[in-house]
Amino acid sequence: MKNKKIILTILIILILLTGIYFSESFAARRLLYYGSRNSDVSLLQRKLSQWGYYRGWIDGVYGRDTWLAVRNFQRRNGLRVDGIVGPETWAALGFSYQSVAVASSNVTRNDEVELIARLIHAEARGEPYEGQVSVASVLLNRVESASFPNSISGVIYQPLAFESVSNGQFNLRPTNENVRAARSAVNGWDPTYGALFFWNPSKPVNEWIWSRNIIRTIGSHIFAR
Predict the structure, then answer these.
(1) Are 30-104 and 108-224 the same fold in CATH?
(2) CA pseudo-torsion sign 91, 96, 98, 100
(3) Which residues contact 72 (CB under 8 A, 6 or more apart)?
(4) CA–CA distance from 67 to each of 70, 116, 195 (Å)?
């Protein structure tokens, strides 16, 4: 009788472990990016930690250490190095590509809009609507330029690109107006006519920026190529 109980206990443990494995491997996973906070981030951190890419806390917070680990993983596995954990990165981590693709196919655009809106809120809070759209347009123009990273997250997190990323302002929640401005830019409105740079002349800036071809001034910002 005692042996039967032991065997039964072992079988239950194996079933539970198998269930955890399949739920982690095949359940739909959400798109993750810098600032995400959920159980999928914890799963991501555990997997990257097991493979030697991540050495931080398993805290479910997608911060700089996690972002760097993801980019390193993407680079070593021949993936697009953008720090965003989408279908391809999830698949490379050993999770179901199909499930992830279904789960994220309708939200990728929305998540990118949120990233853009966060940058608008951080860089153009208090600016007129056109000025907010213009900041988003600079971001999108950089993605299209060969001189900058080819993804929204890559441009945003490019070292020293935006002070609001390093000082934490980027992590603040955007307003509904910021989101609308982001969508206006994504839908093609570019009040800057192709600008790649913007700055506030009332604040300290590198003298080099004044050598750029100034296009126009909108609100408190100068926009240039």
Answers:
(1) no
(2) negative
(3) 53
(4) 5, 17, 28
pLDDT on residue 160 = 83
Taking the alpha carbons of 59, 61, 63, 66 in that order, is the dihedral positive or negative?
positive
Q: What b/e readout covers 180-189, taking b as 16+ CB neighbours within 10 angstroms?
A: bbbbbbbeee
The torsion region of residue 58 among left (phi > 0), alpha (psi -120 to 50) and beta comes to beta
Rounded (10°) CA dihedral 194, 141, 106, 156: -140
**pLDDT tens, residue by residue, 10-33:** 555 554 444 444 344 444 566 777
Q: Round to whole Å and give the CA distance between 145 and 195.
A: 11
Q: What pLDDT is stored for residue 26 in this prediction? A: 41
Q: Where do the domains of the chain lie?
A: 30-104, 108-224
Residue 217 DSSP label: E
Indicate the pLDDT class of residue 168, thresholds 50, 70 and 90.
confident
CATH class, 108-224 region: mainly alpha
Question: pLDDT category, 122, cuts 50, 70, 90?
Answer: very high
Mark residue 107 as left, alpha or beta (left: phi above 0; alpha: psi -120 to 50; beta: remaining).
alpha
Q: Domain 30-104 sits in which CATH superfamily?
A: PGBD-like superfamily/PGBD (1.10.101.10)
| 3-class SS of residue 131 | helix
